[in-house]
Amino acid sequence: MKYIDEFRDGDIARKISARLAEEVQPERQYSFMEFCGGHTHAISRYGIAGMLPPNVRMVHGPGCPVCVLPIGRIDLAIKLALEFGVIVCTYGDTMRVPASNSLSLVKAKARGGDIRMVYSAADALEVARQNPEREVVFFAIGFETTTPPTALAIRDAQRAQLKNFSVLCCHVLTPSAITHILESPEVRQYGTVPIDGFVGPAHVSIVIGSQPYEHFSDEYRKPVVIAGFEPLDVMQAVLMLVRQVNEGRAEVENEFSRVVSRGGNLQAQALVSEIFELRTTFEWRGLGEVPYSALKIRPSYAQFDAECRFDLSYQPVADNKACECGAILRGVKKPTDCKIFGTVCTPENPVGSCMVSSEGACAAHYSYGRFRDIPVVVESI
Amino acid sequence: MCLAIPAQLVELLPGEQAIVNLGGIRKTISIALIETVEVGDYVIVHVGHAIGKIDPEEAARTLAMFGELAEADNDRVSPSTKAAA
Ligand code: SF4
User: Do B51 and A203 touch (CB under 8 A)?
Assistant: First the structure.
């Protein structure tokens, strides 16, 4: 397919790999965090880690919206379905995330909750139109990429004066999460997570542009290269990061210029700010409470805000003790550091959130990377 | 979750909708979130909505940058496409 296949050419990947090997300084260690789960997925799926020089390490970041959704938020959605009897519509990935009381949205559905998987926010709106006698709540999660479609659904619901539609808004913001990581003790003081630069979000940046990342290069002196999700994009971004580090530069560069501009999609931004405002704080799985890192629905649209409409209050819930998702999301640990990785916790039966979506670090490693960990033993007879 | 795919617009429909061709499959999407588009444009589709338009010249430039890299094995190429430009 156009704009996909040509960015997956294996020969060119090997050339970029050779170029990287040539340009890295052997005495130096390079660690780059890929913020987005889309990059984590590409790195595992296309074996990119194996094509990088040994002194270049990729650290997985918290950029998978399913992975960072805390248990307490899923509990709210389950409560809406089981206690308030509303129709809960949500994206497929959220259905299997483990919640409290051994429940998940899938299991709540089996217990009689009317929970429906939708492909888009507009589909949830359609469910509301078709069920005027029922309350319909769209459980909205995602970064800046997924927020504009939710905003559009709320605007359309208002225009159509729909009385039975509301949104449980769990939209979160990328730049505040990156700031939080840079401010975290692991990165700042302890040095347990060295970060020399970031592979910046692809699709998030289509919406918000490359400009919001300039703060990281200016203030924290960290290079950022915004990159597409295809394998050549990721490899090229790593090469561009290596060059910045070698030359002592810290700039925002844009490898994904085919869709990302500095200002981003202004039309989508205007709509988002009409419908949403900043929350003072929001809990992320793995990162805890992060100030100004999420959105809520503006008071003028309160009738479409499920939290107001059903008078919900958020209760934080601790993660499963065995699960290392929190440390993985902060880049402190790798999936294989979790004792139950691949045994008790698998994509079929996830214990933690990182095993649910294919963009989660654990699921990506389970699907594509785990055989690399097994040493090949050749026996001669 | 954040995965989105490039698709070509093949037909504009009323109500800010359009039909895209996704590797042979026709699908109706919303184009309410992007500015003017025409049939033939490639857009990035995410959860049923076009969120951005692909600039064919920039795409060609990025590919050429890889290509150049592929050919010029010995002399350095400096492909920094500065975002802040
Ligand atoms: S393997 Fe499962 S339980 Fe362990 S960190 Fe990953 S998702 Fe969490």
Answer: yes
C-alpha A356 to ligand 1 mean position (Å): 9
Closest-CA residue to A228 (of A207, A200, A269): A200
Domains of chain A plus CATH, in order, are 1-313 (3.40.50.11740), 325-367 (no CATH)
pLDDT over 90 at B75, yes or no: no
A41 contact residues in B (CB cutoff 8 A):
3
Contact B1 A91 (CB under 8 A): yes
Q: What's the predicted TM-score (pTM) here?
A: 0.89
Predicted pLDDT at A327? 87
Identify the closest residue of chain B to A204 by CA–CA distance. Answer: B2
Q: How far is the CA of A171 from the centre of ligand 1 (A)?
A: 23
The yes-or-no verdict on residue A154 having pLDDT over 50 is yes
Burial A137-167 (b: 16+ CB within 10 A, else e): bbbbbbbbbbbbbbbbbbbbbeeeebebbbb
pLDDT of residue B71: 60
Exposed (0-12), middle (13-18) or buried (19+): which is A313, by Cβ within 10 Å?
Answer: exposed
B85 confidence band (pLDDT: 50, 70, 90): very low
CA of A345 to the centre of ligand 1 (A): 6
The pair of structure tokens assigned to A93 is 């990935």
CA pseudo-torsion sign A318, A319, A322, A326: negative
What's the mean per-residue pLDDT of chain A? 91
The ipTM (two decimal places) reads 0.85
The alpha-carbon gap from A215 to the nearest alpha carbon of chain B, in Å, equals 12
Partners of residue A229 in chain B, C-beta under 8 Å: 3
End-to-end CA distance of chain B: 31
